[in-house]
Amino acid sequence: MESQSEHRLLEEIRSGKKEAFAKLVEPLIPKAYHTALAILRSPHLAEEAVQNAMIEAYQSIKAGKEIRHFNGWFSRVIANRALDLVRKENRFDGLDIESVIVNDTSSSPVEKILRKEQSSEILEAVMSLDVYGNLKTGQQNH
User: Fold this and answer.
1) 60-109 tens-digit pLDDT
2) Of 39, 52, 63, 69, which sees the most CB atoms within 10 A?
3) How far apart are CA 38 and CA 32, in angstroms?
């Protein structure tokens, strides 16, 4: 995605256009998932890492964080959230993120459809968050 288009989408997200967030991150989700899967070696944890990264991205954008190259920034967020989960699971064994080679393995058509449905559900949940991370159901964090 070129810089002008990316910048325009970031501004649209900041102004409240939730569909702009979907347009920005949807093309990045397959690569993000494969990166997280390569680090975590667990589909469940990889999905959690992607979800956490999407929440962080949405909150950062809405909070006005200056992001010059979203694709690269988001890739780093994915790697960091995956490594957070590795540490959380007490399986960190000196993994160097720079040495990870991500193989783009093709999924079956059914897996692709299921992953797309899950991605849509995650996007809807992320976009239902307000800037402070509360669900827009009237709940407040105390």
Assistant:
1) 999 989 898 999 999 999 999 999 998 887 644 555 666 666 665 656 67
2) 39
3) 10
